[in-house]
C-alpha cells in the first residue's frame, strides 16, 4: 500500500513570484503552514496570507543584503530530517520539519543580457541559498516534495488535498529540480570560463586549472590524412572575423588541412588594409601581394609562385570580383577561397566550379586578442597569439646605408608576412610582392639558400629586393648568400653574439640593415 504524505509545513523562497499568491492561498486552505524569506513573506502577507518569516523561525536576521537568508542549521535540519525519526534528536529545539520546498533562483542568465553589468554585480546574482535548499531537499526526496517551476504549482495542488503525492511524483520533481540546478550552474560556469579567458589575456594570469568551452561546429571530411577522423570545434562566444565564424558558400566538405591553411591565409591577409591576396599551401604562405585592386593583387600573388599556388588556399581582404572568378574557373586549380561577401554575378560564375570551397568572412578586422593552444601528447601549451604589431620606433638602423622609401615600404610589408611563415623563415620582397619564401628549414642558411633557389627557378628579379628573417641571423653566411642575388636591404630582429660581424658584412655589400628587436618564430 502507498504511504500517505500529508503536507503540513512548506518553505517558500522564490525570486520569480508569479502565481505564488494563488498557490500559497490554496496551500493555507489545506491547513498548510508557510515559512518564507523576506521578499516572499512580504508579498504573501500583502495578500492576507499567513506566513512565518524564516528569520523569525531561526531567530537570526537576513544579513549582507540577502547573501545570507536561509543558511542556518535549523532550516537545513528541517529540510534534511525526517520528522518520524529525527524529532527525538532535536527535542526542545523548535525544528520545523518541512514537507515541501518551493524555490526558484536569482535570474543569473537573464542578467547576462545586461551588458553594462560588471563582474561584482553579476556575482550578486549567483543564488547560494536557493540551490542549497533544493539540493538538500533532493537528497531527502523520500520525505520532501521539491518544486522549482511555477508550472508545477497546479500539478501539486491536484494531489494535496488527497494527500497522495507518491514517491514516484517526488522522484520526478527531484529530477526536475536537479536539472534546474545543473542548468543554472552551467550558465554560471560558462560565465566564469569567459572571465577566465579574459583574465588570461589581460593579466597573463595563467590559471591552475584550465577550463575551455568549445562547441562542435562541423564534421570535417577527414583529419590531416584520410584515415584520421576529424571535426571542428569553435570557441564560445564565437570569435568574429575568424575562420571559425566563417560561412561556407559553396564547395565540398572542408578538411582539417583546409581549415588550418585558411586560418593562416586569413590571419595574414588581415594584416593589410590595401587590396591584398595571400596564397597558402601546407601551412605556409607561398606568395603575398598588395596592389591597387584585388584582381591585380591576385594576379601578382599567383605569378609570384604559380607552381606552389596549384591547389592552394587563397585569402582576399576584399570581395572577390568577376575577373578573379573568371580566371579561377577558366584555368586555375584552387582548393579554398576566403573572401568578404561578393556580388551575385560573381556567385553565378563561381557556381560553375562547384567543388571550389568558398568561405565567407563578414568582418575582417576583429579587435580580439586570442589565446593560442598547441597540443602535445598528454598536454596543451598555451600562449598569447603572436599579435605583435609593428612599431617602427623600436627598429634600429644598424648599417651605414639607410633603406630608401620603397625599401622601407617593402620591409614593413615583409615584416607583416614573416610571422606567418614557419621557422626558420626567410622571405624576399620587392614592390609589395613576395618573390621567394624559404620556409620551415632547420637551419637559417638553408632557408636563405632555398629562397635563392626558388627566386632563380621562378625567374624572379631579386635585384634591389629586401630580405626579412623571422629571427636573428646567427652568422654572416646569410648576408653573403643574399648579396649574391643583389638583395639591397635586410630586416631581422638582431640579438646574435655575432651581430657586429653580420652588420660589417652588410656594410661590405652596401646592404641596409634594420634590427626590429622583436622575433617572430612560428612552429
Ligand atoms: N542567501 C540565502 O540564504 C538565500 N536563501 C534563499 N535565497 C534566494 O532568495 C530568493 C527569495 O528571496 P526573497 O523571498 O527575499 O525575495 C530566492 O530566489 C532564493 O533562491 C537566498 N539568496 C541567495 O543566495
UniProtKB/TrEMBL annotation:
This enzyme's EC code(s): 2.1.2.3, 3.5.4.10
Catalysed reaction equations from the record: (6R)-10-formyltetrahydrofolate + 5-amino-1-(5-phospho-beta-D-ribosyl)imidazole-4-carboxamide = 5-formamido-1-(5-phospho-D-ribosyl)imidazole-4-carboxamide + (6S)-5,6,7,8-tetrahydrofolate; IMP + H2O = 5-formamido-1-(5-phospho-D-ribosyl)imidazole-4-carboxamide
Transmembrane segments: none
Pathway: Purine metabolism; IMP biosynthesis via de novo pathway; 5-formamido-1-(5-phospho-D-ribosyl)imidazole-4-carboxamide from 5-amino-1-(5-phospho-D-ribosyl)imidazole-4-carboxamide (10-formyl THF route): step 1/1; Purine metabolism; IMP biosynthesis via de novo pathway; IMP from 5-formamido-1-(5-phospho-D-ribosyl)imidazole-4-carboxamide: step 1/1
Pfam families xref list: AICARFT_IMPCHas (PF01808), MGS (PF02142)
Domain MGS-like: 2-148
Keywords: Hydrolase, Multifunctional enzyme, Purine biosynthesis, Transferase
SUPFAM superfamilies: Cytidine deaminase-like (SSF53927), Methylglyoxal synthase-like (SSF52335)
Gene3D superfamilies: 3.40.140.20, Methylglyoxal synthase-like domain
GO CC annotation: cytosol
GO MF assignments: IMP cyclohydrolase activity; phosphoribosylaminoimidazolecarboxamide formyltransferase activity
Matching InterPro entries: AICAR_Tfase_dup_dom_sf, Cytidine_deaminase-like, MGS-like_dom, MGS-like_dom_sf, PurH-like
Protein's GO biological process: 'de novo' IMP biosynthetic process
PROSITE patterns in UniProt: MGS (PS51855)
PANTHER family: BIFUNCTIONAL PURINE BIOSYNTHESIS PROTEIN ATIC, BIFUNCTIONAL PURINE BIOSYNTHESIS PROTEIN PURH
Family: Belongs to the PurH family.
Domain topic, free-text comment: The IMP cyclohydrolase activity resides in the N-terminal region.
Protein name listed in UniProt: Bifunctional purine biosynthesis protein PurH
Organism of provenance: Buchnera aphidicola
